[in-house]
Amino acid sequence: MASSEYTTSATRGDSILQVENLQTAFFTDKEVIRAVDGVSFDIERGETVGIVGESGSGKSVTARSIMGLIKSPGRILGGSIEFDGEELTTKIEKEYRQIRGGDIAMVFQDPLTSLNPVYTVGNQIKEALRLHQGLRGTEATKEAINLLEAVGIPDASRRVKEYPHEFSGGMRQRAVIAMALACDPELLICDEPTTALDVTIQAQILELLQEIQEDRDLAIMFITHDMGVIAEIADRVNVMYAGEIVETAPVVELFENPRHPYTRGLLRSIPGNTPDEDRLTTIEGDVPTPNEPATYCRFAPRCPKAFDECDKVHPVSLEVEAGAEDHTAACLLYPEDVSQERAIELHREAETESEEEL
Ligand code: SF4
User: Which member of 1, 53, 280, 322 has the greatest number of CB atoms within 10 A?
Assistant: First the structure.
């Protein structure tokens, strides 16, 4: 195999979650939107993996696919989602309900989507404890108070009796995290959990997640559009663009040595990250709707480095250079230790190989 010296997948062996070539599409009268188009990544226990990209890049659809929350007109078309050795894409709704909120819990951007305004916060945590840990009565109340204390809610024995509207935004998000923990999950999916919060509260929530992770050896998948947040929380990062992962690397490597032109653009748009320029750089244009098969680079219309082949060859994730196993980019400029002609050939070969495997 011509491309064997440069791996095409960033997934590894001992993971709690392994997503391989996931494809999720939405069918409308006019078009098929390939919201997630061949995404592969994995998460190990005790690790935080970031998924970053602009809105419309497919981050949330990836999370919803893992949670079994894709509803018509959407559908998982192919690929695999393996959680703790079990394939999830073949599960029926009843089986999925056990996993959702049990082994895998999710925290959304708006805590009010998870909290019911007519029940006290305590009762909602107790319901999760009853369903997932079989706790009832005073035992459940005690545990609900413990969980509220664990997420840093002061005076927890009083606040357990309060309603969501009596909590501030930051406290509500803490309560949602307490509810998620009541399920004793192995994987926590956080979808922009700090976006609606001010920076001080945001920092507190990120710190809280890190503490919980250490205590429980929890795997966390953290979705955000904010590179600053990713730098704070993630161990490894997947950058998504128009339904595809375009770069994967450990967080320090990604920030010190970004390769994909899209990642570079995202990093240049962080305030304070461009010391020699007075103004922030933005990436012109919007993320395109991925409504046709990727036979070219979807970033090409916005890419400052685009060249002729970018409109003709679909770049796949390859190591950025030989031996850089944990750093891959889907860009025809890489691997960078071969000629550009050879790099393009490697992408063509890898694409043909993956088509043959399907
Ligand atoms: S493949 Fe071409 S257009 Fe796409 S990111 Fe690389 S250089 Fe830019």
Answer: 53
